[in-house]
Amino acid sequence: MQEQEENSRNNQSLKQWLDNIQQDSWQLELLISGFAIFLLFGGLEPMEEWNLRVNMLMRESLAFVFLVVIFQTLRTAYLALLFCLLLHVLLRGLWIAAIGLRYVSGDIDYERLDYQPKFRDWLHRRVGSFDEYIERLERYCSVIFSVAFLIIFCFLSLTTYALFSAALQVGARVLSGGDWFAGTGLDLAGNIMGLLLTLLGIIYFIDFVTLGFFKRKSWSQGWYFPIYRFMGWITLSRFYRPLYHNLIDQRFGRRLARLLPIIIIGFMMIVSFNYVGHPFFPHFHRDGAQWINPVHYDDETSDPIQSIDYVTLASKYPEHNYLEAFVPYLPSDLDPVLQKLHPELVASQQVGFVLRGFLNARDPYSREADYPAILAAMTESFRLYVNDSLWTEIAPRFHEHPRRQVPGLLYMVPVHELPVGEHRLRVDRLALSADSLVWRTGYSINFYK
C-alpha cells in the first residue's frame, strides 16, 4: 500500500513537472529550431561534397549502389527537416504576432465590423474567436515541430532497413561462393531472403501509412505481430513509436499523418516543376558538335558531379600553346577492358576498405605492379582526335583532378601549330560489349585558339 502511494506521488510530481515545462515549451522549440536551421544551412555545402564522393564510389563498382540509396535517403531527410523547421519558425512567429495583437486589440468584434449577416455568421463558424485562433496556431506549431523529428526517424528507418537488406544480400552472395564486390548491394530479387524481406517491408509500410490497419484486425494479429516485432528491430522504430502513436491518437494528428504522403509528393512536384519556353533550343547535346557545354570546361562548371563522367578541358582557350584534356578513370567501364586486353596486368592497389590515419592496417599497394605497363594499357584504351584527326604521338600521364578529386589520365595537347580559330577535341574509348571490345565515340569538345 505504501509503495502504491509513493508511485502515485511520483507520477503526480512527474505530471506536474511536465505540465510546467509544457507551458514554456515554445521557447525551447524556437531555440532548438533556430540553432538547428543555422547548422543545417551550414551543412549544405559539405553534404554536396559527400554527394560527389558517393557518386564516385558507385562509378567504381555497382556494389556501392546501396550507398547512393542510403545517402539520397538521408539527404532527403536532411532537406525535409530543414523545411519543417523553417515552417515551424514561420508559424511560431505568426503565433507570437497574434499574441501581441491580442494584447493590443483583444478579441475580434464581429458586430463592430458591420458585416452582412451571411458573412458574419459564416465568419463566426469558420474563424471563431481570436483566442481559439491562437490556440489552433499553438497546436499546429507543436505538432509540426514533433512531425519534423518524426520524419527524420522515418527516413532513418528506411536507412537501417536498406543497410540490413544490403547486408543480407552480401552475406547470401558470400555464402554461396560469389564475389560481393561484383554485384549490387541491394539486389533484392537475387535470392529468396531478399524477396521475403521486401514483402515484409511492404506489409509493414502499409500498416504504417494506414495508421495501424493490420493491428486493428483480429484476423491479422496472429501472423502480423511477429512481423511487427521483427521489423521494429530492423527499422529502430522503438525510438519514434511513442511519438507516432501519441500523434495519431488525436483527430488533427490522424488527419496530418494521412495527408503527410500527399504533402510530400506535392512538395516534390512543386520543386520539380519547370517551364519550357525555348521550343527550338536542343534538349541534349548528342555528339557535342553544335553545343558549348560548360561541363566540359573546368573553369566554367560549378558542380563537379555534373562533369564526373566527362572528358574535360582546363579551358576552352588554351594557354602557353598547350591544351589540358582530362579523361576520368571509371573502374566500372575501364577495368573489364584492361582485363580483356591484358589479363596479365597486376593491379596497383587492392580494392576494399582500409584504415588510414590514427589507425593503419592492410597496405593496399602492390609492389609487383608495373606502372608503365598499366599506363600503356590505359593509353591503348583511348583514342584522342583533334579536328577528326587521330593523334597518337601524345603520351598521357596519371593525374588526379584537384577539384573533382577524380583519378584519370591527363593529355597535354600541343596546339601551337594549329591555325587561329575554332577546333574540336574528341576522345573515343574502348568498351566491353557481349565479350567483345568495341569503340565508343566520345563527345566533340570545342576549343579556340
Structural class: alpha+beta
Uncertain spans: 181-189
Q: So what's the overall shape?
A: extended
Task: Please work out how many helical segments DSSP would assign.
Answer: 14
Tell me the total number of β-strands: 9
How many strands, which pairing sense, and closed or not: the largest β-sheet? Answer: 5 strands, antiparallel
Global Rg: 31 Å
What share of the residues does DSSP label as strand, in percent? Answer: 5-15%
Q: Averaging pLDDT over every residue, what do you get?
A: 80
Order of helices and strands: HHHHHHHHHHHHEEHHEEEEEEE
Helix content: 40-55%
Distance between the termini: 96 Å
Total tally of structural domains: 2
Quick overview of this protein structure:
This protein has about 450 residues and is of the alpha+beta class.
Topology:
Elements: H1 2-23, H2 25-42, H3 44-60, H4 65-105, H5 110-113, H6 117-126, H7 130-175, H8 192-209, H9 213-216, H10 221-235, H11 241-248, H12 251-272, E1 312-313, E2 322-328, H13 331-341, H14 371-380, E3 382-386, E4 389-390, E5 397-400, E6 407-414, E7 422-433, E8 436-440, E9 445-448
Antiparallel strand pairs: 1-2, 2-6, 3-4, 3-7, 5-6, 7-8, 7-9
Helix pairs in contact: 2-4, 3-4, 4-7, 7-8
